[in-house]
Design a protein that fits this description.
three-stranded parallel sheet; TIM Barrel; five-stranded parallel sheet; alpha/beta
Length: about 270
């Protein structure tokens, strides 16, 4: 399972081929994650054309708030239209906020949008896909905001997933111990990403997933060799192999664990 992709970000004429390559590579399921509410119709079409294989979420990414925070009714309407498997991608991105013309203002807007979506996920009984990025490597400001928001909203971390995990084992261990999930992307394979590579060796085998975040975050060796212009779900095999080496697990075992955990987290088990 590719637990986090953005199939709607591929040109319409390329989507069928991208999905065909994913199935050929052995993927069984893909969760196409929303970044804004105006993409609802595209996501719904992807799900309808690929029943039982492509699933979608509803959410507004923290970098997609230039027009303000959508009203609660807009989120609810989107949920009713496409029956998502989760709320998200939502969260805190202080890296983008710091680069804006009004850093504090955008950071506060991100907090409001995140709290709103956390509460919607809680009230609807849906899992939550979280984006968490710091202004600087090594900082924990965004991480602390996420933890505090979940606590304030009284959300059980058992149904919260930190996607594209980019922290150390010091954050991962207590997060998973509290029931939280994490997913690892192609950044796991990037040279110099020592903290994340170390962190996956501490991961709870029942609370980790794999993802591509495609069309972003090309994994090695494709990234260094510049064989491709963008990432796609089929490339998840490179991240899975790298993860298996670090975890000292069989490659197929890592794939099966990720699929099993993804089915559990997104409630796709039958």
């Amino acid at each position: 399972m590719d637990s986090h992709a953005h199939i709607d970000r591929f040109p319409p004429e390329e989507r069928d081929a991208v999905l065909a390559r994913a199935w050929e590579a052995g993927l069984e399921k893909i969760v196409s994650v929303a970044t804004a509410l105006d993409g609802v119709d595209t996501l719904r079409q992807l799900v309808e054309l690929n029943p039982g294989k492509v699933f979608c979420t509803v959410g507004t990414h923290p970098t997609e708030l230039d027009g303000g925070v959508p009203a609660q009714k807009e989120f609810i309407d989107a949920v009713e239209r496409i029956a998502p498997v989760a709320i998200g991608e939502t969260g805190i991105d202080l890296f983008s906020a710091a680069k804006s013309a009004s850093p504090q203002r955008l950071a506060e807007r991100q907090k409001r949008a995140f709290f709103l979506q956390v509460c919607i996920a809680r009230d609807l009984g849906l899992p939550l896909v979280i984006h968490c990025r710091e202004e600087e490597k090594g900082r924990l400001d965004a991480w602390n905001i996420v933890q505090r928001t979940l606590k304030d909203a009284k959300v059980d971390t058992e149904w919260a997933l930190i996607h594209c995990f980019d922290y150390s084992y010091q954050e991962l261990v207590p997060w998973q111990k509290s029931g939280g999930f994490v997913s690892f992307s192609g950044t796991l394979t990037h040279k110099g990403n020592v903290n994340v590579q170390q962190a996956i060796t501490f991961t709870h085998v029942g609370r980790f997933l794999l993802e591509t975040d495609s069309p972003f975050l090309i994994p090695e060796p494709l990234r260094s060799e510049k064989k491709v212009k963008c990432c796609e779900p089929a490339h998840m095999v490179h991240t899975a192999r790298f993860a298996a080496e670090l975890m000292e697990y069989e490659y197929e075992a890592v794939l099966q664990c990720s699929l099993k955990n993804g089915n559990k987290f997104f409630r796709l088990e039958k």
